[in-house]
Amino acid sequence: MRPNRDIASSSLAFIDVMSCGLGAVVLLLILVDFSYVVSEEEIEIEPVVNETLANQNMLEQKNILIAEKKNKSLAIEKTLSDLSEAMLSLNIEKIKLENAVTTVVEKYQENPNDKAGSGELIGLSVEGRRILLALDVSASMSSKNLIDIILGLSDLSSQQLASGQKWHQAKGTLMWLLKNAPDSSEINVLVYSDKVKPLMLGWRSKKDALATTKAAIKTVSPLGGTSLASLLETVSNMVKKPTNMYIITDGLPTISGSKVSGLKKIKDCFGLPSKNKYVDGKCRVALFNSAVKRFENNNSIETNIILLPLEGDPKAAPLYWRWANKTGGILFSPAQGWPPR
Description:
The chain is of the alpha/beta class. It has helices spanning 9-31, 40-43, 45-110, 115-122, 146-153, 159-162, 165-179, 206-216, 228-236, 281-298, 316-327; strands at 130-136, 186-192, 196-198, 204-205, 244-249, 302-307, 331-332. The longest helix has 66 residues, at 45-110. The radius of gyration is 47 Å and the shape is elongated. The model is unreliable at 114-121 (pLDDT under 50).
């Protein structure tokens, strides 16, 4: 006989587990549809969504740019409108000015001796209790063209320089200033180049100054360089100084005065004056600044500049204007043919 053995309970438990697992697998096969395939539309959903968001951002940025351009366009239109109004106003002022000038010219033509008419026309008036008139008589005052000046210097008789058109204009300007000065003013007249020479002794009445100058100026011819410093040193040494000064010239100085302070910084300028020595633009500016600075240290005189044309001296106008404006005077550059004979 076989001995009695107990049935192992673990064998029954394993079968149960396997049955449950098999049932779960069967249930999974029944519930899940393994034949389902993901479509391309579903795959593209996320990129499409992203692309839509990007397009929205781009559209918003585009709208912002359009708004900015519209604002700029409106601003430009407003600016153009303002400019149009300004141009219209300028045209109106231009017409008024032309009419005013025409009226003054007609008045002057009717009565050439009318001081007010001629003064209003050019914007230059002669005034002052003691008026000093200074005429530059250097060689360049004969012509505005350098070649004509050089050719004139080769004429030892100085007749070619004396016959220059600009020289006649310079003398005419001097006489115009005298004629338009107040009758009550005291007047003195100097001519200067490398040296200074008075055309009369001391301060004279307008009548005497006119007669003396008219006769004396006929003997003067343009020659030599220009020493503004010598002129200003002479004025500084006057016992009875002018209240108003009118200088007729055509450019910056080419020669220093008796003092050369302020020129040591520029090597080429130190040692001046020396006759017929070439002076470049930088040195001429230094000569001008040195002369004016020394003069302003001890003098306060209203200074007016009548600047005639000259080739190759572009810095003359702004420097003379700054000096005249600082003293309360003006810079005046007459047109060719002024003053009328």
